[in-house]
Give the backbone structure.
Amino acid sequence: MSSTVGRAAIPVRAVAARLLAAVRSGRSSLSDGIPEADARLADPRDRALLRLLIFETLRTIYRREAALQSLLENPLPATAREVEALLLLGLMQLDQGIDAPYAVVDASVEAARALGKSQYAKLVNAVLRSAQRAGSKLYDDALLRPECQYDHPRWLIERLQKDWPEEYPAILAAGNVRGPTWLRCNRLRQTSSDLCQSLQAAGVAARRHAILPDAIEAPDAGDVTCLPGWEQGNFSVQDVAAQLAVELLDLVPGLRVLDACTAPGGKLAHIAERAPDLDYLLGLDSDGRRLERTRDALKRLGLRPTLKQADAADTSAWWNGVAFDRILIDAPCSGTGVIRRHPDIRLLRRASDISGMVGQQSRLLDALWPLLRSGGRLVYATCSVLKDENQHQISAFLSRHPDARAGAIPALWFGQEAGAGRQNLPGNADADGFFYAVLEKSA
């Protein structure tokens, strides 16, 4: 399959190789790269194949890199990074039986030529045929190394061993499988019961969450943009763990609400859907590009909360002096609880990043706490499983602010107690790895 979107046909494996090379070099994330790759692929089947190739290769990237190193007599030059990515994609396809071996080899050679790397066509053919002959034995030596055995970076394996000595193997295993698709019903457009019935009528297995009123699990939904009701804004894609945020905010009409780190806008949209009679709803984000995508998502849903591009912690630049009744800090974090949905995190995140993120989280908490009125509520959330970003962060905050107390989180289906908050580990309750804390200001 290939694409003809206003340009010469481009094999999907060539598009995938370019994206994988960009991710491995740190030049792009999947969140940024996949929309750009999709623009080069007109056929929905190509887009589905692109995701399969990229996600499955990244989920096993360390063993693929080790195997490729053993197959090459000499490392490839920096000018051949896309060829290297193409070979990693090919190794995954051969190992997992994505296609017949001869088809994988032929398609990879074709992709090398499409990338303008015809001089490497024979090398691609030879390396992949050698891998085909070696079979599973190709990975015997690699799997003796922890990062290849678990397909996570060693620093994260060691960090999880420290934080979760009993649970860390399950956390790592959960990061290597595809998470189920969870939808969030836009109750301003359709009831969750009606949405569930319309999906089932379209042949999509769907079930409502036992507790969260807007959550519907559709594990094999495929391309959600092809489902009935998508274009009408009847639903969004949002993991069930993320949908807990609106419940913890305890919204009622007339409140002033701040979503301090709003992009990509899922929680902001959920607030607007659940509480259309708020006095004021403001979404902030420092990234203008992500904020523009948030605006587009809100438009599809028929929602118009106020959006501003600003650093939430620099309150003098955007705050008008009127206190908020509710504040949501969906804090920038390591993302270690959502690696199953964002497998590029294992490559893009570094051990040295964590201390900076902990500092950024503390800065946000301390800067926004004075903006909360007495008797108000601040919900702190991360999609991390690292204790420094979660329970240790909140413990330190409470020690700095005597007018703050930890509120209850009654969602007993959601993970386990973690200091003053609650931690869900990836896969528990079919949900992502998330942490929540509810902070209430003394009246």
